[in-house]
């Protein structure tokens, strides 16, 4: 089963085309996401670069991350839908963070794609 | 000549002591040691202390430590350590371990300083070992912990403190400023706990719309369901949702009420809540095909694709008009697309089949085809803003922003309170023209109809991006009219009763 997160990351690209430059100015960090389809499963990697140029989204690990988030597919979608607070997820151990904590906390709702809806 | 090798050679090879020294001396391990500690703390320490502490070192050394030969010559302490290590490798008695590290560090320092090479004595490693030895840095659970304890009581610091206290506020703030400018990272790393707290707050969305705190209607109101239908037709979503909340509470087994409740939430751009309502309705009545189709839309909007194939399978299987079609078990969306194609040949006038086909193409990222099928659906259900909005979304996804804007505007012309189209119009404007101001205006207009938290969240993001963070306190009042001075807000529902 394809990861739901993949759709989420895909939908960030057109958003970045429009607001990427301004987001880069505010965020200034590269995030890696290590997404697990289930706890302990083989991870899929995504890179959200909000540090360079107009920002970029890519599959896989690109460049050096300022912070790496490890969480399940369902949990990332819950974060994106506003039903899971990533800080709470971190405290509960549902999400792991590696890297610079100050940069990690730059991952805020501002970063999420604001998508037109059917 | 390699001094560390020379030093190692002077130790008997193979015993614990020399292994420990080896660990500390090996540049690779040394790197690890430094890294597991707090680099920032380390640097700060270095700046404040490097000079003064080198002098202290000499005194400490004489007072505190015999020379290397002396330690080495004491076989008793030596054996003691060795035994403890073998009994419980890596977990020496804490006190013993502490002394052990201090002693070892001391020996290394001695060896290094004996080389009389400034390159070593000024190296990061030397300073690190020096702090280990003096007890100002400790290794606890594999982490380097710095101890500033005594330093502040030392005369040099007392002196500095006096000077600092004698400064005027102006001078102090000047120094603070200079420090901040030259150490930008310090501020960020100061308090992780505080950072985490702020981070949590940034994501915290009070779920106050889940259950209305102040439902304007009496829970005893007659026929809330019928009244809600009327309110929905007029576009009074806040009223409709309040009434439906009473309706489903009173009749939790009423699948039609759940369907309408879900549709209301979907129209106000709250697909998360809509999904919940449709699921509740389907739990009561699994054969409600309208509910199934609505569920498909909300699933796509909330990135919850896993059950889509199952919903589409159930929709076509339960629809008596297409009972001749057989859906293989576990059919994928690709197979279902073929089956729906056949259904559209059986009845070419069914808007719902086109809608389903449009959604499937949309999920497969075929936005051109999706637009086509939504257009077809609209042809057989003219004026339905839910379908027209879908056409606009398919256009936006193809980058046809100008056309999409016209479509979203058409939606709100037909139904001025249609929040979802206002939000889509705002995002479309931002994505197309980068015009944050007009985008925010759309979100605020949407919030006058139904003040969801996510609308204010969108405004917050774009206020930041347009460098108008000064307006955030006004935004936090969660009253769109508070921002009227800065933004042009229309009230779609004003004067409509």
From TrEMBL, chain A:
It comes from the Eukaryota. Signal peptide: none annotated. GO terms for cellular component: cytosol. Residues 19-108 form the SCP2 domain. InterPro entries: SCP2_sterol-bd_dom, SCP2_sterol-bd_dom_sf. This is SCP2 domain-containing protein. The lineage of its organism: Eukaryota, Sar, Alveolata, Ciliophora, Postciliodesmatophora.
Automatic annotation (TrEMBL), chain B:
GO terms for molecular function: peroxisome matrix targeting signal-1 binding. It holds the Pfam family TPR_16. Keywords: Cytoplasm, Peroxisome, Repeat, TPR repeat. One of its GO terms (cellular component) is peroxisomal membrane. Its main location: cytoplasm. One of its GO terms (biological process) is protein import into peroxisome matrix, docking. PROSITE patterns: TPR (PS50005). TPR repeats lie at residues 255-288, 385-418. It is found in: Cytoplasm; Peroxisome. InterPro entries: PEX5/PEX5L, TPR-like_helical_dom_sf, TPR_rpt. Belongs to the peroxisomal targeting signal receptor family. This is Uncharacterized protein. It comes from Stentor coeruleus.
């Amino acid at each position: 089963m394809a990861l739901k997160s993949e759709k989420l990351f895909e939908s960030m690209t057109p958003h970045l085309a429009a607001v990427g430059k301004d987001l880069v100015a505010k965020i200034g960090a590269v995030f890696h996401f290590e997404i697990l389809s289930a706890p302990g499963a083989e991870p899929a990697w995504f890179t959200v670069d909000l540090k360079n140029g107009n920002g970029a989204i890519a599959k896989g690990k690109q460049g050096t991350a300022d912070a790496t988030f490890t969480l399940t597919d369902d949990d990332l979608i819950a974060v994106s839908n506003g039903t899971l607070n990533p800080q709470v997820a971190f405290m509960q151990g549902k999400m792991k963070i590696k890297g610079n904590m100050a940069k990690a906390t730059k991952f805020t709702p501002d970063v999420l794609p604001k998508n037109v809806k059917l | 000549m390699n001094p560390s090798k020379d030093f190692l050679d002077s130790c008997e090879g193979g015993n614990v002591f020399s292994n420990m020294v080896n660990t500390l001396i090996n540049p690779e391990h040394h790197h690890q040691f430094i890294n597991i500690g707090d680099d920032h703390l380390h640097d700060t320490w270095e700046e404040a202390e490097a000079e003064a502490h080198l002098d202290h070192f000499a005194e400490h050394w004489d007072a505190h430590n015999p020379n290397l030969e002396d330690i080495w010559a004491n076989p008793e302490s030596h054996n003691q350590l060795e035994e403890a290590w073998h009994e419980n490798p890596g977990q020496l008695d804490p006190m013993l371990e502490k002394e052990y590290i201090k002693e070892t560090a001391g020996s290394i320092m001695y060896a290094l300083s004996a080389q009389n090479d400034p390159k070593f004595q000024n190296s990061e490693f030397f300073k690190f070992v020096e702090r280990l030895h003096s007890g100002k840095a400790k290794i606890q659970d594999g982490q380097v912990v710095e101890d500033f304890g005594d330093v502040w009581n030392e005369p040099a610091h007392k002196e500095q403190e006096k000077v600092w206290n004698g400064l005027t506020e102006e001078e102090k703030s000047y120094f603070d400023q200079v420090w901040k400018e030259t150490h930008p990272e310090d501020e960020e790393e100061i308090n992780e706990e505080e950072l985490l707290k702020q981070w949590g707050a940034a994501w915290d969305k009070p779920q106050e719309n889940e259950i209305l705190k102040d439902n304007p209607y009496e829970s005893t109101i007659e026929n809330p369901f019928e009244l809600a239908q009327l309110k929905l037709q007029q576009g009074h979503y806040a009223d409709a949702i309040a009434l439906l909340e009473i309706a489903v509470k009173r009749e939790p087994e009423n699948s039609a009420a759940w369907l309408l409740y879900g549709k209301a939430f979907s129209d106000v751009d709250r697909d998360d809540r809509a999904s919940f309502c449709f699921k509740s309705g389907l739990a009561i009545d699994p054969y409600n095909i309208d509910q199934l189709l609505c569920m498909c839309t909300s699933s796509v909007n909330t990135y919850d694709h896993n059950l889509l194939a199952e919903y589409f399978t159930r929709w076509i299987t339960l629809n008596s008009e297409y009972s001749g079609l057989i859906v293989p078990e576990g059919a994928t969306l690709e197979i279902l697309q073929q089956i729906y194609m056949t259904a559209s040949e059986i009845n070419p006038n069914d808007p719902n089949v086109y809608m389903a086909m449009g959604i499937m193409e949309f999920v497969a990222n075929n936005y051109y085809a999706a637009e086509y099928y939504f257009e077809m659906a609209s042809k057989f259900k003219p004026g339905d803003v839910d379908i027209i909005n879908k056409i606009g979304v398919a256009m936006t996804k193809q980058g046809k922003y100008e056309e999409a804007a016209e479509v979203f505007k058409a939606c709100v012309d037909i139904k001025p309170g249609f929040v979802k189209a206002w939000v889509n119009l705002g995002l479309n404007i931002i994505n197309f023209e980068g015009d944050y101001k007009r985008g925010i205006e759309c979100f605020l207009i949407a919030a006058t109809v139904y003040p969801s938290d996510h609308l204010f969240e969108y405004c917050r993001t774009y206020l930041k991006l347009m460098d108008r963070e000064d307006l955030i306190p006004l935004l936090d009042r969660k009253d769109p009219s508070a921002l009227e001075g800065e933004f042009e807000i229309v009230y779609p529902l004003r004067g409509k009763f």
